[in-house]
Amino acid sequence: MKFNLKTSYIVAIVVVLIVLLLFGGRMFFIVEAGERGIIFRPYTSGLDTENVYGEGFHVIAPWNELYIYNVREQQREETMDVLDKNGLSINTDITVRFNPTFNSIGHLHQQFGNNYINVLVIPEVRSTVRQVAGRYTAEEIYSTKRAEVEQTIKDETRRILGENYIEMKALLIRSINLPDQIKGAIESKLQQEQEALAYEFRLQREESEAERRRIEAEGIANYNQIISESLTDRILKQRGIDATTSLAESANSKVVVIGSGKDGLPLILGGN
């Protein structure tokens, strides 16, 4: 009895060791930092899209399979040719930064698989860039509405990828390259527009200065008219008398002749 029990233990240990040797690589998993895992149960419920395995050590049945996804922020750069509103070819360099939505790895795997970057992300980015560029002219894309074009591409790409379990962090248009002839024409036109704006500004400044001087002159003329209308003969005589009185009271020697001046005002003779 004891011999049989001991033998059973030994057999069980041997069986466990064999299982571990044969299936250990399919049973024990470590999900690294920046990764998430999902499990596929081929003989029962299939792909578990709801439960996502986080970082750390995990044990699964050897007949199941664990798919591990990198959920760190990733970057892809694309160079592509697009057509503007008038059919002109424009070469653009695009950079997109993104990561899978952590809790939606199961749905992402179910619809697009491990190759989701080439199946989903890059095609959608390229398609959106082409669609948005087709709404604008080359001049608008290159200069006048470049910020608007970039923002539209970002908004539409973020919406489409978000609906497919991808979180877009940023989308950058690194460069927009036009044929030299078209680029030169656009730059020449922009330079002429800036010169015209500068000339218009100078005209407006001169007109403002002329208006200021006109208003100032009108003010001086009105002031002189008011003063002229307010000065009567009596007021002038009174001011002459006041001035004469002030001079007569000064310390300098003089001779004052009363009533001998024009209009009967006093005359002051002599004095230093």
TrEMBL record:
Keywords from the UniProt entry: Membrane
InterPro entries: Band_7 (IPR001107), Band_7/SPFH_dom_sf (IPR036013), Prohibitin (IPR000163)
Keyword Cell wall biogenesis/degradation belongs to the record: no
A Pfam family: Band_7
Annotated signal sequence range: none
CDD domains listed in its UniProt record: SPFH_prohibitin
Residues covered by the Band domain: 26-190
Top-level lineage group: Bacteria
Protein localization: Membrane
Recorded topology in the membrane: Single-pass membrane protein
Record GO biological process: mitochondrion organization
The keyword Membrane is assigned to this record: yes
SMART domains linked to this entry: PHB
GO cellular component: membrane
Protein name as annotated: SPFH domain, Band 7 family protein
Species annotation: Mariniphaga anaerophila
Lineage, highest ranks first: Bacteria, Pseudomonadati, Bacteroidota, Bacteroidia, Marinilabiliales
